[in-house]
């Protein structure tokens, strides 16, 4: 079976990160795109050589030439469009964050089960060679993993950046779920889940310190995994210097790497210090899209399931909902 994709929300993320990859993978082609702005949909189609364009998502979903749907709209419409595609019997590749919050994610889990459809969440870093190498080092070169620490800091956005259309929806919690944290943290938290497995408990705190926009701009959170690894993460989008570092320390060694910076992975062990450099990918989503194509064709397992994506959303909720006066921890069912 050839996978013939239709994109709902052919915006910035699809220009380089994902869109071109659909035509660079065997048994995959991009045949239709949709944006609510018809002129922009037509422009995208013409620039990328796509034969069909729509300004109505349901028309794209109903197109008989489209048999798989990539949803790349802001998160506030993910549940709606994913439900429509599953209802039409078409598999879904869904951008992160998969929904606005954990409640919507849980609803999507139920819908996927009800329709018996296929859905892959675009937590694409877990299948990139860089992070597969990190996983290999954790499993075989640092003994028993004990603790993981992540620090991600950014300087405040300029006034010009905050006013750009591509940033405004990200800073609006009603559209994005929670600002820059919700835009970036799904990748980081999913990697921890990919590295360490099932989550026993998570908690955190979040605050809007600088008051530059409606969303929180500083978050701190902890996760205890069932394998006893303890994770601590801190995100700040209002500080003097940028920082992107994650350290994982085990009983016999330490790994240091970046999530977004692609700096060489560092391994410190009884053999000394080793570095593992990797080339940047032209299209960062291509490895996961390739895996999703194989899954949709029945040739491989789901590279990132809706249930796995739901776990990430629950963790994010547990980090930020205390700000709203809600319970501060999120124990998993049966593990209280």
Task: List the SSEs and their pairings.
Layout: E1 3-8, H1 12-15, E2 28-34, H2 38-48, E3 52-54, H3 57-62, E4 68-71, H4 78-87, E5 92-94, H5 102-115, E6 119-121, H6 129-140, E7 145-153, H7 159-163, H8 165-168, H9 173-176, H10 180-196, E8 199-207, E9 218-225, E10 230-236, E11 243-250, E12 253-257, E13 265-269, E14 272-276, H11 286-296, H12 306-320
Parallel strand pairs: 1-2, 1-4, 2-3, 4-5, 5-6, 7-10
Antiparallel strand pairs: 7-11, 8-9, 9-10, 11-12, 12-13, 13-14
Helix pairs in contact: 4-5, 5-12, 10-12
Explain what you see.
The chain has helices at residues 12-15, 38-48, 57-62, 78-87, 102-115, 129-140, 159-163, 165-168, 173-176, 180-196, 286-296, 306-320; strands at residues 3-8, 28-34, 52-54, 68-71, 92-94, 119-121, 145-153, 199-207, 218-225, 230-236, 243-250, 253-257, 265-269, 272-276. The protein has 336 residues and is of the alpha/beta class. It folds into 2 domains: 3-124 and 286-305, Rossmann fold, CATH 3.40.50; 126-279 and 313-324, 2-Layer Sandwich (Dihydrodipicolinate Reductase, domain 2), CATH 3.30.360.10. Helix 10 packs across helix 12. The protein is globular, with a radius of gyration of 20 Å. InterPro entries: Gfo/Idh/MocA-like_OxRdtase_N, Gfo/Idh/MocA_oxidoreduct, GFO_IDH_MocA-like_dom, NAD(P)-bd_dom_sf. Pfam families: GFO_IDH_MocA, GFO_IDH_MocA_C3.
